[in-house]
Amino acid sequence: MTNLHFNFKDVFRAGRLGFSAKKMWISFLGLIIGGIGYTILSYIAFLAAGIEISEVWSSYRLMPFLFFDMTFPWYSWVLWIVGILWWLCVTLITGVAVSKVTYEQLKGDEFYEIKEAFKFALKNGKSAILAPFVLIVFIAALIVMGIILALITWIPYFGQLFFALMAIPAFFVCIFILYLVVVTFVSLVIGPSIVGTTGNDTFDTLFESFSVINDQPWRFFTYEFLLKLVMFAGVIILGFFAAKAIYLCYTVINIIVPDEKLGNLFANAAYYVKIVIPDFYPEAIKKFITGYVEWIGMPNLLFPPEYIPAYESWAGAITSFVLGIIYYLIIAGVLSLGCSIYWAGNTLIFTVLVKKKDDKNLLEIKEEVFEEKKEEKPEEKLEEKEEEKKAKKRKKEEEPQEKTEEEKKE
After folding, report:
1. CB neighbour list of residue 91: distance below 8 Å, 6 or more residues apart
2. Which of 55, 137, 265, 363 is paired with 99 by a 20 to 30 Å CA distance?
3. Within 10 A of 90 (CB to CB), how many other CB atoms are there?
């Protein structure tokens, strides 16, 4: 069992715990599965709005998203929101799996299997999904009730008086709604780690989310801020080495392969990759991302080159396409470290907060193991039946002998 400090120092363990092939692989699968579903639904949303695939591809490549100022029909927005929900659900289930592996590792089990983590996540992950969903539904219900009550103000004279009387209760309801929004955010952030460490159902996950924000709000936000620093540092460092590894690979292959051929393949591979920075990001974040991508020597990720005639026609085209896919896999691998650090860190944060608020060490809790009854083989059942028959025959044979002995005595 890992000995924790049960303070902010434990958050910095997230970098070491997250840098794990097992956890990164789980996160990588989550990014791929969630990203594929989101991409398909987003493209369908654009097609439903009458936009051609070529236009979407030239603007976004594989990760299109809608802006609020776009005049799209309502069903396109619904499809896009469904894509976001799909990605969110996959991310939360992945978080449960990573948290479960981290929790077992902290308890001393370094060989907890990925298969078992996914089984646990698929069985209990619905709690991490339903907890924020229940809160969102409740918030929506309160807003609808407010709209219904607002309709009363249309009644002459009485409506205005009713509005004045209900102003103070409405104010407190609005404060309560804002409080529920904060708890929803908390349940999204730490809910998978709650489920991964305790296996709680939806109600208990909600209870722990309320307990965290009520009892330890400052520690929660401070620890989350530190975790984000660790996560971003990990992604930045791994991204730097990934870019340099690509350049090293290019340099080594270029010793044998002509520069004209190799440059054509890599340039066309870069054509397939594009990272779009959303417009709603603050200007400082946009400049940071742009500066970082240029610093590691990969500006093509933001501004891909035009496609040029493939070297050796169809063979070069296929090779460039495959290299483009590999580029995306490398990007997903770098991001998987960030996801792994994030969920491992939240597992640590929840463990520390439970110790602070409940004086309970989750790492000392032993899971109850229920022994499964061994199924009797048909051969064993037949042997038992034969033994029972033999025993009955022996009893029948012994009974007349006992009677004769009694008769002799008489």
Report:
1. 30, 34, 339
2. 137
3. 21
